[in-house]
Design goal:
Length: 297
């Protein structure tokens, strides 16, 4: 059912102000336009709401009965519109962000803390998953924004590269490589490496570089998540090749983060949103903050 809000608003204004002239000024329309609005509403209802003479306007019995409900409709709609306008002005509200887990260690929390300071009433729902899952969440509407490893272009996704995240070696002291300022991929030939799931971009980059060096992955353990690999490195199970953003020196006692060179391998981390349709005010504010914040190493 289509509700004629303009007609309801016109009827309430006339009833409260006592005439068409005052009501037209209040609503910033001509008296002719105001009359048409009321006539259209009455035609839709099939009932007369106002008795008009050359001298005065009076409510019919039906009009008097309808007035409290009509007034409530106008007040509720006005309040809802003002709330939306306030949301737009203040960038308030809630939104869902999909993100790869490695970004939740250090990079994303810093941005979220700044966002909370700027917009203390807003709430972020975080969905963590692989880059493939992040893309699907944004495309499927489960998340307004996504943070993932830069991948194959999709016609419905807009991607903004945030930073280049280089792969590094994590090892626990004592280790033969712990005193190095950097290590090459070839230096890893005899290193016990914890494998990362083959479904992650990190594993793809790692396997490619090791294969170029003629090195097979040595290790008796494979995990799904970067955080699990860090736990195992800290426990002395083995070393791991991970994105630099997943770990900072001092996170775990005795664990070293050493740059990998020859070559230096970087994965691009991108901000995703759909090309069609706008963002909510809360998501738009986060989108702008994230693009303006220096990230990476």
């Amino acid at each position: 059912m289509k509700i004629d809000f303009d007609g309801v608003q016109a009827f309430v204004a006339i009833a409260e102000l006592g005439g068409f002239n005052k009501a037209a000024r209040e609503l910033h329309v001509t008296q002719t336009a105001l009359t048409r609005r009321v006539q259209k509403l009455e035609a839709y209802l099939g009932l007369k709401l106002l008795d008009r003479t050359t001298r005065r306007v009076e409510l019919t019995a039906v009009g008097r009965e309808f007035l409290p409900q009509a007034r409530a409709i106008v007040q509720e709609m006005t309040a809802a519109v003002e709330q939306l306008k306030d949301m737009s002005r203040r960038s308030t509200g809630h939104f869902t962000l999909a993100c790869i887990p490695s970004m939740t260690s250090h990079v994303l929390p810093r941005v979220m803390q700044r966002y909370a300071q700027l917009h203390p009433g807003n709430r972020i729902r975080l969905l963590d998953g692989s880059s493939h899952e992040v893309r699907n969440a944004v495309l499927g509407g489960q998340a307004e924004l996504g943070i993932a490893v830069h991948g194959e272009k999709h016609p419905d996704l807009a991607e903004t590269v945030l930073f280049a995240d280089e792969l590094v070696l994590l090892c626990r002291s004592p280790h033969a490589l712990e005193d190095r300022d950097s290590v090459t991929w070839g230096d890893l030939r005899d290193t016990e490496l914890i494998g990362i799931s083959s479904f992650t971009a990190t594993r793809v980059f790692m396997d490619y570089q090791l294969a170029k060096q003629g090195i097979r992955l040595q290790g008796h353990c494979e995990v799904q998540h970067h955080a699990t690999a860090i736990n195992l490195v800290a426990a002395g199970v083995g070393s791991a090749i991970l994105p630099s953003s997943a770990f900072e020196e001092g996170d775990r006692p005795g664990v070293r983060k050493i740059p990998l060179t020859q070559p230096t391998v970087k994965r691009k981390v991108s901000l995703l949103r759909t090309r069609h349709g706008g963002l909510s005010p809360a998501a738009q504010a986060f989108h702008e903050l994230l693009k303006a914040t220096p990230l990476g190493n």
